[in-house]
Amino acid sequence: MTTTVTMTGVGGAGNGATPQGKTTQQSSQASDLNKQSNQAFEDALSEGTVSEYVQESSLFSSGSFAAIGLAGEGSILGGLGAYGDWFVAGMRSAAGGAGLTALLSLSGDSVQDKDRQYTYVTYTRINPKTGQVYAGRTGGYGPPDDIVYRRSLGQMHLTAEGFRSPTIDQISTDRAAIRGREQQLIDFYGGAQSVGGTARNLINGVADFNPNRPYYMNAARKAFGDIPDNSPERYRLDWR
Questions:
Q1: Exposed, middle or buried, 99 (CB in 10 Å: 0-12/13-18/19+)?
Q2: Same domain, 237 and 135
Q3: What angle do CA 8, 133, 228 make, to 5 degrees?
Q4: Is 125 helix (H, G, I), strand (E, B) or coil?
Q5: 72, 105, 138 — which closes off a domain?
Q6: What pLDDT does residue 25 have?
Q7: Are 170 and 124 in contact (CB under 8 A)?
Q8: Number of structural domains, the chain?
């Protein structure tokens, strides 16, 4: 099958404007991006897919250590400072190796967890005052309600803004389908702010030109069907 670039999406909801001109607003956005990047990395840790995260992340290839949320105040690897470039180089070199995955996928799961079903979940959180929606995905062991509740405990910034508790969208054992579904939801609720959208998500769950994007999106369509795309019109990788 040949990969093609197709124009997908319709006009986005709202004007897609991004707050500019105020240092406090820019600082808040940087902080939020750091938190979302941390969440993506934590998901990779819990799923044992760190090597895939390193390989796929367009932010890693940028060479900016702080940009991916692994540096700075409150970040996962905050305090490494000058060792940042060394760490990124080492991560990139080791990506795909069993040793790195084994080292970084130690998320505290017990031996008993290996015999239990790991479940993936997509969810939404709505701000009733603004109507803005945050869409996300997570995974873990146990009842889906417990899984999304644990995720919400790490999203105190959303709670502080007035977002309600998570509402479960879809549940699956298919990680690819859930990854695609998260992106479907982000686009449905107006698109990520990084592409001029109006959802609470600052970045896409699956980057527009991620080489695996068609696989994730088709897995979601097969498992859950299509939903309207209300994100800004733009080019992105896809095939059907």
A1: exposed
A2: yes
A3: 30
A4: strand
A5: 105
A6: 52
A7: no
A8: 2
E strand residue ranges, the chain: 5-8, 119-126, 133-140, 167-172, 234-237
Shared-domain flag, residues 51 and 147 = no
Shared domain check, 131 and 240: yes
Residue 70 CB neighbours (<10 A): 23
Indicate if 122 and 235 belong to the same structural domain: yes
The verdict on 130 and 193 lying in the same domain is yes
In this structure, of 36-45, 162-171, 219-228, the range with the lowest mean pLDDT score is 36-45
The structure's pTM equals 0.62
Crossing angle of helices 175-188 and 213-224, in 10° steps, is 90
Q: Tell me the residue type at 210.
A: N
Q: What angle do CA 14, 182, 176 make, to 5 degrees?
A: 150
In eight-state DSSP terms, residue 81 is G
Q: Is the pLDDT of residue 72 over 70?
A: no
In DSSP notation, 145-202 reads: HHHHHHHHTT-HHHHHHTPPPPEEEEEES-HHHHHHHHHHHHHHTT--GGGT--SS-S
| Residue that finishes a domain, picked among 105, 138, 163 | 105
Residues 164 and 236 in one domain: yes
Domain containing 80: what range?
39-105
Residue 240 has a pLDDT of 83
